[in-house]
C-alpha cells in the first residue's frame, strides 16, 4: 500500500507541477516585441491567405530539385528577413552596373543588376564584371509594407519638394520608374512620361509588393514564375518554378503584416527624444505619419500610421554615394527608410545593428553621423546636442 | 489544456491496478544468454523474442505511442496523440553459428515503412563474424541500440536522430568480433555499405542534415555515387566501470561523375562519435551519453546555411527510486531521469562578418518512468528546448508534456 502511495505521489507531483505551473510552457512574446503577425481586422478568409503566405515566406526552403538557382543569394524568403525584420550581412545583396540616370544599366547582359553570389554545387556564382559600379543592400524589415503600399501617389507628390522651393536644403523627389506589365496601377496613380512612382527598395526602384515579390523570387533565389520567367543563369525563358498562387499568397502576407508597435511611448525620455527628433529636422524626411487611401483590403484603407518615412529620394551626400543607382535616382540619392521597427532590428540581425543601406553603421549614432547631403544640417545639429538630448533621441529611435 | 492533461494522466495512473492478464501458454519466451557482458553492438539480438512451438523462427517487436502537448513561443498545436512506432523483429538461427535477424519499422502509422535491419551473421570465430544485408552503421551507440522500450524518454535524442541519422541502415557487408577476458570485453565492427547523397546539403531543413539521405529509397538498391561508406567502431567494456565506444563513418556524398562525365570534385562527409554508459555501484544510477562530430565538404560558393562542421550529443541520467513489487508486478521499477542534449548545427563563421554562426539547439527533459516489467516502460516527460537561428537571434522556446508507453511484445 505504501508503495502505491509513493508511486501516486511521484506521478501526482509531476502532474501537479506541470499543470499548476503555467510558466512550464513558454509564453508568447509581447506584441510590441516582435515584428511578425497580421494587421488587425482580417477576415477568416484573409487569415487563411495570410497563413499560406506565412508558410511560403518563412518555411519554404528551395533546393536544387525545387528550382533553387543555379545561381542565388538565398534559398528562402525568411533567410533574408528573420522574424520579418532587417537582414544581416550574410544575405546582403549586391547590385551593379548602373552609374547614372541617362545610360541606364549597361551590364544587364552581364548578369546585372543583381549579383547572384552563391551557386548550387557544380556551378560557379557570378562575379561583378570589370568596370561595373556596385552597391550593397541589406535586406529591410517587411513590416507594415501594406500600409506603405496603400499611400496614394498624391501624398508622396505633396511631400516632395524637388527644387527645394522652401529653401530648407531638403528636396525629396519620387523615383520615376518603368514598371513591369504584371503590376496593377494603384488608384489615382501618377504618371510622367510613361513612368510611375517607385516606393520600395533602397532606391525606390520598385513599384509595388507584387514586383518586389516576383523579383525577389527570381533574382534572390533563382526561382522563375509566370511574372519573372527568365532564368538568371541562362537568361532563357523557363517553366515557372513557383505557382502564381504562392506568389500571390506571399504578396498578401507582406501586405498584411502588422506595423511595428512602438514601445515605451509614455516614457519621459522617449517623449523628449521625439521632440529632439523634430527639433533637429529629422522629421523633414522621416515623416512621422502618413495616411493610406482606398484599399481592397479593408484593414489597410484610410489608416493613419507612423512609419517615419516620406518614401522619397534624398541626396545623402558623398559618404553614402556608392556610385551605383537605379531608375532616375542619382547615385547619392536614397529613399528615406522607414524608422519603425528600428529598435527591434537587433533581434533579427543577430544581436547587433547593421544599419543604413549596406549595414555599414553598427549603431544608431553611427548611422546618424553618416548622414550627409540634404541631411547634413540635421547631422550638424545632432552633433551640437547636449549628451542628454542625444541620449533621449537614441532612446526614442529605439522605441520605434 | 490543464484539465485534459490531468484527466489523461490520472485515469492512466488509476488503471495501473487493472492491467489484463496474458495467457503465456502458446508462446514461449526465447531465453537470452545473460552470462556474457552485453555491448551496444549486441542490442539487435538483446531483445525479447517469442517462439511458437518448435518453429525455427523467433518473433518480436515493440510498439510505442504517446500523448503530447507542446507549446512554442506561446503557440500550441494542441493535444496530440501519436503512434510513433510499430516495429517487428523476425529472427532465425539457420545453424548454430549462422543467424538471420530483421527489423521492420512502421513510423507514425504508415507514414514511413523501413527495413532497419535485415542481415545474416556467420560466425567464423568469436573474433571474426561476417555480416551482410541491411546493416545498421555503427556510428555512436544510439543507432544500434535505439529500441523505444530501452529508454526513459519519449523523444529520441536530437543529436542521434537529426545530426547523426539514426536509425541509419544501409546495404553492405562487414565483419565484427568480440574478445572476452575476466572483467573486460573488447569489440570491433567494420562495414562497407552504400552511403549518403547530396541531399545532406540540399534539403528543406535549411541545414546540413545527414538524415536527408534516408529519403533516397534507392539506396537499398544502388549507391548514389559508387563509393562505399566506411563505418567502423571499437568498443571496450569493463563490468565495473562501463562501456566506451569510439566510432567513425566516412565517405563521398556527392555525385561527382555521371555517365562518364565529371560533375564536381569528390566531396566527403565524415562523422566521429564517442559513447559511454555505466551504472554507478550502490546507487544504481544509469548514465548514458553520446557525443558526435560531423564534417562535410561543402562548396565554398554555396550558402553558409549548410555548415561544414556540426557537433552535438546527449547525456541521460536515470535513477531508480523504487524497485519492488508494485500493483502486482514483481519486479517493477520507478525511475526519475533527466536528459540534457545539445546540437550545434553549424560551427562555421560568417564570411561577411567573421562572426560565429549560431544555429543550435539545447534541451532538457526531466522524466518519470515506471517499468512494471523490464520490457515495458510508461513515461512522463517534460521537454524544454531553446533553439537559436543562424544569426543568433533570441531563441525560439518550445516546451511541453509528453506521456506514453513503449513495450516489447
From TrEMBL, chain A:
Name all Cytochrome c domain ranges: 53-258, 268-400
A Pfam family name for this chain?
DHOR
Matches recorded under InterPro entries:
Cyt_c-like_dom, Cyt_c-like_dom_sf, Cytochrome_c_Peroxidase/MauG, DHOR
Q: Which UniProt keywords apply?
A: Heme, Iron, Metal-binding
Cite the GO molecular-function annotations of the record: cytochrome-c peroxidase activity; electron transfer activity; heme binding; metal ion binding
Tell me if Lipid biosynthesis is a UniProt keyword of this record.
no
Q: What is this protein called?
A: Cytochrome c domain-containing protein
Question: What organism is this sequence from?
Answer: Chitinophaga cymbidii
From TrEMBL, chain B:
| Signal peptide range | 1-20
Q: Which InterPro entries match?
A: Porin_dom_sf
Which keywords describe this protein according to UniProt?
Signal
Its name, as the record gives it, is Porin
Organism, per UniProt?
Answer: Chitinophaga cymbidii
Amino acid at each position: 500500500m505504501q508503495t502505491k502511495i509513493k508511486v501516486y505521489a511521484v506521478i501526482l507531483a509531476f502532474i501537479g507541477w506541470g499543470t499548476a505551473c503555467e510558466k512550464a510552457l513558454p509564453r508568447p512574446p509581447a506584441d510590441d516585441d516582435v515584428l511578425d503577425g497580421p494587421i488587425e481586422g482580417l477576415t477568416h478568409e484573409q487569415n487563411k491567405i495570410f497563413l499560406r503566405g506565412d508558410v511560403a515566406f518563412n518555411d519554404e526552403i528551395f533546393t536544387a530539385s525545387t528550382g533553387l538557382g543555379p545561381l542565388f543569394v538565398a534559398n528562402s524568403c525568411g533567410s533574408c528577413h528573420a522574424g520579418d525584420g532587417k537582414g544581416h550581412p550574410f544575405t546582403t545583396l549586391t547590385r551593379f552596373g548602373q552609374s547614372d540616370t541617362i545610360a541606364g544599366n549597361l551590364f544587364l547582359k552581364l548578369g546585372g543588376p543583381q549579383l547572384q553570389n552563391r551557386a548550387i554545387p557544380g556551378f560557379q556564382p557570378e562575379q561583378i564584371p570589370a568596370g561595373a559600379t556596385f552597391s550593397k543592400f541589406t535586406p529591410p524589415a517587411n513590416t507594415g509594407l501594406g500600409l506603405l503600399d496603400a499611400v496614394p501617389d498624391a501624398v508622396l507628390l505633396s511631400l516632395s519638394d524637388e527644387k527645394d522651393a522652401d529653401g530648407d536644403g531638403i528636396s525629396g523627389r519620387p523615383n520615376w520608374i518603368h514598371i513591369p506589365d504584371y503590376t496593377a496601377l494603384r488608384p489615382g496613380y501618377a504618371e510622367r512620361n510613361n513612368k510611375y512612382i517607385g516606393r520600395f527598395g533602397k532606391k525606390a526602384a520598385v513599384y509595388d509588393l507584387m514586383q518586389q515579390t516576383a523579383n525577389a523570387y527570381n533574382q534572390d533565389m533563382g526561382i522563375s514564375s509566370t511574372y519573372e520567367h527568365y532564368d538568371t543563369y541562362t537568361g532563357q525563358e523557363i517553366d515557372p518554378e513557383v505557382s502564381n498562387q504562392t506568389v500571390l499568397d506571399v504578396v498578401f502576407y507582406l501586405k498584411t503584416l502588422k506595423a511595428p508597435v512602438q514601445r515605451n511611448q509614455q516614457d519621459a525620455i522617449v517623449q523628449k527624444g521625439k521632440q529632439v527628433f523634430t527639433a533637429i529636422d529629422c522629421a523633414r524626411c522621416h515623416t512621422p505619419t502618413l495616411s493610406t487611401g482606398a484599399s481592397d483590403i479593408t484593414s489597410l484603407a484610410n489608416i493613419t500610421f507612423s512609419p517615419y518615412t516620406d518614401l522619397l529620394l534624398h541626396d545623402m551626400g558623398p559618404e553614402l554615394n556608392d556610385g551605383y543607382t537605379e531608375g532616375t535616382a542619382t547615385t547619392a540619392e536614397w529613399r528615406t527608410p522607414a524608422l519603425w521597427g528600428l529598435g527591434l532590428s537587433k533581434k533579427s540581425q543577430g544581436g547587433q545593428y547593421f544599419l543604413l543601406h549596406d549595414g555599414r553603421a553598427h549603431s544608431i549614432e553611427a548611422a546618424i553621423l553618416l548622414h550627409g547631403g540634404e541631411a547634413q544640417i540635421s547631422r550638424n545639429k545632432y552633433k551640437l546636442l547636449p549628451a542628454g538630448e542625444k541620449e533621449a533621441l537614441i532612446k526614442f529611435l529605439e522605441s520605434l | 489544456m490543464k484539465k485534459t492533461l490531468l484527466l489523461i494522466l490520472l485515469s492512466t495512473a488509476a488503471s495501473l491496478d487493472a492491467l489484463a492478464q496474458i495467457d503465456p501458454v502458446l508462446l514461449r519466451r526465447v531465453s537470452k544468454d545473460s552470462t556474457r557482458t552485453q555491448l551496444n553492438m549486441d542490442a539487435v539480438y538483446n531483445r525479447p523474442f517469442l517462439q511458437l512451438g518448435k518453429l525455427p523462427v523467433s518473433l518480436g517487436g515493440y510498439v510505442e505511442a504517446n500523448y503530447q502537448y507542446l507549446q512554442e513561443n506561446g503557440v500550441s498545436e494542441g493535444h496530440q496523440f501519436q503512434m510513433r512506432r510499430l516495429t517487428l523483429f523476425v529472427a532465425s538461427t539457420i545453424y548454430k553459428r549462422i543467424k538471420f535477424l530483421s527489423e521492420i519499422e512502421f513510423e507514425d502509422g504508415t507514414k514511413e515503412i523501413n527495413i532497419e535491419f535485415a542481415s545474416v551473421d556467420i560466425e567464423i570465430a568469436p573474433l571474426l563474424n561476417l555480416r551482410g544485408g541491411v546493416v545498421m552503421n555503427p556510428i555512436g551507440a544510439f543507432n544500434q541500440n535505439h529500441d523505444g522500450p530501452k529508454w526513459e524518454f519519449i523523444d529520441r535524442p536530437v543529436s542521434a536522430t537529426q545530426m547523426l541519422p539514426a536509425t541509419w541502415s544501409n546495404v553492405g557487408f562487414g565483419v565484427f568480433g568480440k574478445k572476452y577476458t575476466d572483467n573486460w570485453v573488447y569489440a570491433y565492427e567494420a562495414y562497407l555499405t552504400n552511403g549518403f547523397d547530396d541531399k545532406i546539403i540540399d534539403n528543406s531543413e535549411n541545414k546540413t542534415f545527414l538524415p536527408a539521405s534516408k529519403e533516397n529509397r534507392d539506396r537499398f538498391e544502388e549507391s548514389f555515387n559508387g563509393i562505399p561508406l566506411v563505418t567502423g567502431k571499437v568498443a571496450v567494456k569493463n563490468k565495473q566501470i562501463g562501456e566506451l565506444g569510439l566510432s567513425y563513418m566516412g565517405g563521398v556524398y556527392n555525385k561527382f561523375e555521371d555517365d562518364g562525365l565529371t560533375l564536381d570534385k569528390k566531396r566527403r562527409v565524415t562523422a566521429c562519435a564517442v559513447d559511454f554508459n555505466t551504472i554507478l555501484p550502490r546507487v544504481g544510477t544509469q548514465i548514458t551519453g553520446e557525443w558526435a562530430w560531423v564534417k562535410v565538404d561543402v562548396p565554398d560558393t554555396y550558402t553558409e546555411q549548410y555548415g561544414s562542421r556540426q557537433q552535438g550529443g546527449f547525456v541521460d541520467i536515470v535513477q531508480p527510486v523504487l524497485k519492488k513489487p508494485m500493483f502486482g508486478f514483481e519486479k517493477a521499477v520507478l525511475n526519475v531521469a533527466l536528459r540534457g542534449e545539445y546540437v550545434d548545427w553549424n560551427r562555421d563563421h560568417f564570411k561577411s562578418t567573421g562572426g560565429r554562426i549560431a544555429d543550435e539547439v539545447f534541451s532538457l527533459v526531466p522524466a518519470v518512468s515506471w517499468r512494471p516489467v523490464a520490457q515495458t516502460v510508461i513515461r512522463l516527460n517534460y521537454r524544454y528546448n531553446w533553439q537559436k537561428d543562424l544569426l543568433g537571434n533570441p531563441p525560439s522556446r518550445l516546451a511541453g508534456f509528453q506521456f506514453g508507453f513503449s513495450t516489447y511484445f
